[in-house]
Structures are given as C-alpha cells and as structure tokens.
UniProtKB/TrEMBL annotation:
GO biological process: mitochondrial protein catabolic process; mitophagy by internal vacuole formation
Domain of life: Eukaryota
Residue intervals passing through the bilayer: none
GO terms for cellular component: mitochondrial outer membrane
Source species of the chain: Pipistrellus kuhlii (Kuhl's pipistrelle)
Protein name stated in the entry: Spermatogenesis associated 18
C-alpha cells in the first residue's frame, strides 16, 4: 500500500490540477461555454481517476488490517458520506454542509 501512496504523491497530480484550476478561473469569463464545460469535465475525470487510486489504497489497507480491522472507520465515516452524496446527486441537489465530513 505504501508504494501506491508514494506513487500518488510523487506524480505531481494535485499540484498540476491546482495550477490548471487557477488558469481556468483566470480565463473563465473569456472562455466560451463549451470551453468551460470541457474544463469542468476534464476536472471531473481527473478527480475520478484519483478517487480510483484512493479506493485502491483503501482496499489494500483494509486487506492488510485483517478480517475486521477498519470496519468501524469505514462504517462511521465513509458510508454516511457516500449515502448523503449519492442521495443529493440522485435528487439533483447540490451537496451542502449537511454531508458529513470525512475528517475525524
């Protein structure tokens, strides 16, 4: 697991993403609607890829912990967050502050 995390940190993904977000913000008002939508979709795709990597790390970490280690953390932090997020998305509502934080 540590190797997967090291790879995620070392690939400069977040730094590059932040720079691209800043550039998009700077150019937003001069971009066409299609350009702004394309930027937004690119970021959604990038975040989805990163989430895939993080869920891979989560899976590996849970497997390393044994049969029941980590279950309470997942039940108390991840599941409520996922439920609130998917419920809001299915109702077409923006996710608000009522969504539980994943931070302890």
């Amino acid at each position: 697991m540590a190797e997967n995390l090291r790879k995620l940190v070392s690939n400069d993904f977040l730094r590059t993403m932040y720079e691209n977000l800043e550039r998009w913000q700077r150019d937003y008002n001069t971009n066409s609607c299609d350009q702004n939508l394309s930027y937004c979709l690119e970021f959604i795709e990038q975040v989805a890829k990163m989430q895939g990597q993080l869920f891979g790390i989560l899976t590996t970490t849970a497997q390393e912990g044994g049969r029941y280690d980590g279950v309470e953390v997942i039940k108390s932090r991840l599941l409520p967050w996922l439920e609130a997020s998917f419920t809001a998305a299915s109702l077409g509502k923006p996710i608000d502050s009522k969504v539980p934080s994943l931070q302890a």
